[in-house]
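re: ur question from earlier - yeah i can do the single chain one, its not a big deal. heres the input i used so u can compare w yours
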Amino acid sequence: MDIDEVNDLMQTAYEIGEEDLLHELAGDMVDEIRRLQKLCGWIPVTENLPEDYGFQLVMIEGKEDYSQGKYNSESGLWWVRGRGKVDLCDTVVTHWLLIPKLPKGG
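and the output i got, formated as tokens:
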């Protein structure tokens, strides 16, 4: 359900006096906002891991800078870019950050 459909459903629920539905929708929206807020900052690997095999920004334990890395959920291993190539990470990735998609036409 997209945001316009949610808005229409909430408007209809309000007009017909469906307070329970409004409360349920509001709770769902709060949960979704919290989920999206987590995706906008550094995510500890202890809380969540990336869902796909694309590159993410990663923090390595003991380093004060970030790298690019990708996580393979099948093997449980991180691959981290360094020195112009991608290496199996022999250090600990502590956090990751979603890299946004490139803008269209740009």
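The mean pLDDT is 80. not sure if urs matches, ping me
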